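Predict the structure of M14-type cytosolic carboxypeptidase.
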Amino acid sequence: MSITVNAAFDSGNIRVVGIEGDTVSLEIVHDKDSEFYQWFHFRVAGARGRTLTFRITNAASSAYPPGWPNYKVRASTDREAWRMTPTRYAGGVLEWDWTGESDLAWFAYFAPYTMDRHDALVARMALEPGVSHRELGRTLDGRAMDCLELGTGPKHVWFYARQHPGESMAEWWAEGALERLTDTADPVTQALREKCTFHIVPNMNPDGSFRGHLRTNAAGVNLNREWHEPTPERSPEVLCVRNAMDETGVAFAMDVHGDESIPANFIAGFEGIPNWSDEQGEKFYDFGRRLAAHTPDFQTEKGYGKSAPGKANLTMSTNQLANRFGAVAMTLEMPFKDHDPNPDAEFGWSPERSKTLAHSCLDVLADMIDWI
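Done. Here is the predicted structure for M14-type cytosolic carboxypeptidase.
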């Protein structure tokens, strides 16, 4: 049987350069109207009984080449379990071997979170007691901007995930947060719902998610550089969410992402905003310390550098919300590699671990909410 490669599906991305015997040469496709690319997701048919070598030949020119060393491709035969497979990066080529025990196999940069799964999550959560759904607006491709709301408390908490669509671990995190918050037998989250009103946007970039983009929307725009002046023409996703935040105010906000290079979970804050106060900053730092003490799947040693006083980029959501509302705002980054301080040799960082980290974040928020 001949080998065929297909990425013409929800969140798919790959281009076949050539197939010679058992060697499959590929390229990742750029985000539309953008120089960004790194996300890939494709299916291979005709794999049974063959040992195939896959080569992504344009890896060196991707958005974040330092993300490839020590990275492992995720592979699946059922689209449910996504295991790491040994991967090599040399000479600018990302390469791995696959011995097919079934006809079909799927490969991806990280375990995908498709728009079909997103729609199912929204439908399921909208039926939970005390949950309401709002369509905040529409994307450039006409997709709904879904927001799930729950809780009756005076403190408004915003969780929003996947501004960068290729960072699919972010929506797995959002699924975990929603499942924990809707567990009526959980005393921690029930107490949180009495003190807070939660607004959760599981996917900030539906168009990019469906198109198989790494970082941008249908217009080739990086949404996390649009929060100062979003427009209907470039960034309606940010515009409708920020408008909703202006209606409610924001006490606490978490922007959920994935990082290509750093093999650990970490948070980034809002140092350098014009309205910085030490009291506001200490609440951010305390959240990180408490989360690291709570779970081995978080740490505070590795992360991004801090902006100098007055030099924060207010086009980024965490800085904008901290400055605009005085919110305790933060960006959560999860790895495409693994969380090296607590590694998993089979799955690496995974959907289930992303969901469990969301549970830990809620535990820490519950401990701190009275003084946020």
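The domain at 4-108 is CATH 2.60.40.3120 (Immunoglobulin-like).
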